[in-house]
């Protein structure tokens, strides 16, 4: 069930009431969360719930071995635990990718082989919960976790339903610290959570799903469209992806606040980023921070003798993994590599760690506006690699965009009301860009009837645009 489905609303209201009414202590509250998470996951992948629970039990047992082991055997137990997680990830997500490419390579060098592709169903959320498990095992190995949580606490951490299919990818220590203690109901958290949930619903259901009615036909009929139509469609897709993903993250974070739990922030208004490094500090933050801690930082230390080129190599490897994390397709791999290459001018120019000034005023400075526009256009073009089915389709997109047809009138119908919705979302997020999310403190100083009138308008728009739960882009990862 999607977080924006009527079935989830019914499910969550029941869980919410049981959680706060019967949750007399942390154990009961965690038991309710685990049961709810199992029901939630069963609704998506009933055949894979057992696999998830068995993997949780196995990695928990291995974490205890890592914790108790001496330094000489600690790394071996951690490698075993990571192997347990990676083997299932490699099988379900990457097995056919490897088979196809090995077959194509052998065919290319003259061997006549048969391509044996398996019919493999991808367990929902496997990329997200796999990184939670691996991060936990590495934190135990590196002695960042001073006490092993209970099996119940660890199970809740891995399977926590609001973030199961969307992230954020939480780290074990801050999450488990919260659920070790009984959560007390807070009206402030409740109000704040509802605001973030409402804003997430607006971005996902009203903005992203409205844009999808334009971008879906564009990507289906791209071969008949001119360059200007494809460029505008790519811009719209970039905004759609942001509204879809960040909106779903806002829903997950808001729901967590309703349960008295704080999870990792995942977006900090990335559409207003001023360069590539700034963008990835604000986009899918939990993934980039996870890879920074466990991949980039160790590699940059390993390559430090090579100076700036060692730093570049570490970043390229890091973004190669980001691309591969998204899917077992070459266009995702190239997507990651291109993002890594965007850092090269920053590193060679000594601007990687430079903090960019952000105006506190209503309007951006000329320099800020220029940087935002260049970064937005750059990532619009990069996200084509993310949105297409394969590299051949990406090639056709780029070929048409960088042709004379770019200067023709776009040959697709555009809905003006969608432009209004996009402008409203971006304007409100620009005004509130120094907050955690757009509605956090917006209109707090205004009279109550003004605030509630604004909320009712958003609620009306959510129900007006909601017809049936549409797909969620990041569910496939």
UniProtKB/TrEMBL annotation:
GO CC, one annotated term: plasma membrane
Keywords: Acyltransferase, Cell membrane, Membrane, Transferase, Transmembrane, Transmembrane helix
Localization, UniProt: Cell membrane
Principal location listed in the UniProt entry: membrane
Topological type in the membrane: Multi-pass membrane protein
Keyword Transmembrane helix attached: yes
Statement: the UniProt record of this protein carries the keyword Isomerase: no
Source domain of life: Bacteria
InterPro entries assigned to the protein according to its UniProt record, in alphabetical order: Ac/AlaTfrase_AlgI/DltB, AlgI, MB_O-acyltransferase, MBOAT_fam
GO terms for MF: acyltransferase activity
Transmembrane segments: 6-22, 50-68, 80-97, 117-138, 309-326, 332-350, 371-394, 414-432, 453-475
Alphabetized PANTHER family for the sequence: ACYLTRANSFERASE (PTHR13285), TEICHOIC ACID D-ALANYLTRANSFERASE (PTHR13285:SF23)
Family statement: Belongs to the membrane-bound acyltransferase family.
Protein's name in the database: MBOAT family protein
Organism taxonomic ancestry: Bacteria, Pseudomonadati, Bacteroidota, Flavobacteriia, Flavobacteriales
């Amino acid at each position: 069930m999607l977080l924006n489905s009527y079935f989830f609303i019914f499910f969550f209201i029941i869980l919410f009431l049981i959680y706060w009414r019967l949750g007399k202590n942390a154990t009961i509250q965690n038991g309710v969360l685990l049961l709810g998470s199992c029901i939630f996951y069963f609704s998506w992948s009933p055949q894979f719930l057992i696999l998830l629970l068995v993997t949780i039990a196995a990695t928990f047992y291995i974490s205890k071995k890592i914790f108790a082991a001496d330094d000489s055997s600690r790394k071996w137990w951690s490698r075993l635990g990571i192997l347990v997680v990676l083997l299932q990830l490699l099988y379900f997500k990457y097995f056919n990718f490897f088979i196809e490419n090995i077959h194509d390579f052998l065919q290319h060098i003259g061997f006549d082989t048969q391509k044996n592709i398996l019919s493999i169903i991808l367990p929902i959320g496997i990329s997200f919960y796999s990184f939670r498990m691996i991060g936990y095992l590495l934190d135990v190995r590196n002695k960042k976790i001073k006490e092993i949580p209970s099996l119940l606490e660890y199970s809740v951490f891995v399977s926590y339903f609001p973030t199961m299919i969307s992230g954020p990818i939480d780290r074990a220590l801050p999450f488990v610290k919260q659920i070790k203690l009984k959560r007390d109901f807070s009206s402030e958290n409740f109000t704040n959570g509802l605001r973030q949930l409402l804003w997430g619903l607006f971005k996902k259901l009203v903005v992203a799903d409205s844009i999808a009615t334009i971008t879906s036909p564009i990507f289906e009929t791209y071969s008949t469209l001119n360059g200007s139509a494809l460029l505008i469609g790519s811009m719209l897709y970039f905004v759609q992806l942001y509204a879809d993903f960040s909106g779903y993250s806002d829903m997950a974070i808001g729901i967590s606040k309703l349960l008295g739990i704080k999870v990792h922030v995942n977006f900090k208004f990335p559409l207003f980023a001023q360069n590539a490094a700034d963008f990835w500090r604000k986009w899918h933050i939990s993934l980039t921070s996870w890879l920074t801690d466990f991949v980039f930082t160790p590699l940059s230390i390993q390559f430090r003798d090579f100076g700036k080129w060692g730093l570049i190599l570490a970043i390229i490897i890091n973004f190669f993994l980001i691309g591969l994390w998204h899917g077992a397709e070459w266009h995702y791999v190239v997507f990651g590599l291109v993002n890594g290459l965007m850092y090269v001018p920053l590193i060679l120019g000594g601007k990687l760690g430079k903090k960019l000034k952000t105006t506190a005023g209503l309007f951006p400075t000329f320099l800020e506006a220029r940087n935002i526009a260049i970064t937005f256009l750059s990532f619009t073009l990069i996200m084509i690699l993310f949105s297409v089915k394969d590299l051949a389709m990406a090639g056709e997109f780029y070929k048409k965009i960088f042709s004379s047809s770019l200067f023709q009138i776009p040959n697709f119908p555009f809905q003006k009301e969608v432009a209004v919705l996009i402008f409203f979302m971006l304007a409100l997020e620009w005004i509130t860009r120094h907050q955690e999310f757009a509605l956090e403190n917006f209109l707090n100083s205004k009279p109550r009837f003004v605030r509630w009138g604004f909320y009712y308008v958003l609620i009306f728009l959510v129900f007006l645009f909601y017809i049936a739960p549409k797909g969620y882009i990041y569910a496939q990862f």
